[in-house]
Amino acid sequence: MAILTCKDLRFAYDGSTVLEGVNFTLNAGNYLCIVGENGSGKSTLMKGLLGLKQPDGGSIRFDEGLKSTEIGYLPQQTQLQRDFPASVWEVVLSGCLNSLGRRLHYNEEDRKRALFNMERMGIEDLKDKSYHALSGGQQQRVLLARALCATKKMLLLDEPVTGLDPIATGEMYNLIKLVNLCDNITVIMVSHDIHAAARYATHVLHLGQKQLFFGTAAEYRESALARRFLGGHRI
Amino acid sequence: MNEFLHLFSFHFMQRALIVGGLVSLCAALLGVSLVLKRYSMIGDGLSHVGFGALAIASALHVAPLAVAVPVVVVTAVLLLRLSQNGKIKGDAMIAIISSSALAIGVICVSVTTGMNTEVSSYMFGSILSLSRSDAILSGILSAAVLVLFVLFYPRLFAVTFDETFSKATGTNTELYNTLLAVLTAITVVLGMRMMGALLISSLIIFPALSAMRVCSSFKRVVICAAVISVSCFVLGTIASYFLETPTGASIVAANLLCFCGCALIGKH
User: Fold this and answer.
1) pTM value > 0.90
2) How buried is B231 (Cβ within 10 angstroms: 0-12 exposed, 13-18 middle, 19+ buried)?
């Protein structure tokens, strides 16, 4: 039951190729971690999956009724958002944007969904708090709740633990794993944290301007590539 | 007190208060998005382009608003496009376009009519310069800005807060950015008659900044900015009548005082 199939994907900027030869298939409920160094093409692939950048070759296919606009996306935080005057409620509710369709304003159903996802993330008592007054970990949970409002099937997370302290990082990983297991939501996460990738993910995609590895996390742990990347330590 | 009531019996004063109030309201609503998107300078750039257009229109003896509105709307859309994709960075682009437009306007004025009161009123603003047709057009356009803002409020919030997320969930962000730019352009041109090209951008920026000192949610910031903007406009206009100071400058001074007050309250 493939939910996402990438075939011979190639991306280029101004004619020069930055990523090529990407071939992989994900089933519903998989947890994929995309790893690689800076400039390896991770962000480009993310943009491609979200439909923000057109591939210069190959194809991306979503199945099981998923559209690229129904992916719950958690972007890397920008400085702009950190001091943005918005309440937690306003931010989470804005995740229902893609279900507006032709409607102009949110309805009761959207509000219920936003509230439900806030409860899931344990942030319902922060509802009227100002977003910029929250800690980094709380802000990420707000953004995760917003991403969940936008999807029933797939989450795409861009470096979700960057800048978080170890406790908040652990909580964030657990929350992500929880929605992955309980709601059978497919997770795709771009991360620098290769140890966490090997521990939480079911699959790993290692990029270095082309596809260096794709397989299950268990296979990845055994691979020569992972050993080199991890500095000789086995995990 | 009698003198105070007397003030409102003048036709030009009634007209100025109604039109000015509407324009201040629009400016405040749009200002919140513009300030948060780091587009504050666009208002300033557009007002200079507006001055150039008005100067040329008055030299050619055509209706000033009929020329200025389309010219400034087109510039606004261009500025937005260029600041996103261009090789020259957005702020530098705005500086180039605004000073060029100002220069062209000044040259045009000095070659034709010279620095007369009409041109000076574009520069520094004058509540007397509002004609009846200007007032009607201003009323209609401000109403349109208000209605569009309220109708698209959830989308404008989403696009302001996180453009990438909105785009990824299938929202046409370019459309809403363009809408924002066009509405701003219209507001700038309308406000220029009263505030003057040099001061109109403050009408957009000040209320949003003041409101952001004291409010924590987007909706509250928008409402608070609208209230601050209209009150500062009314206070500034009345003060300018009694103190015989220029209207535009008095309104900006009122906004400055309000900003200082909000900054002090916000600290506690």
Assistant:
1) no
2) middle
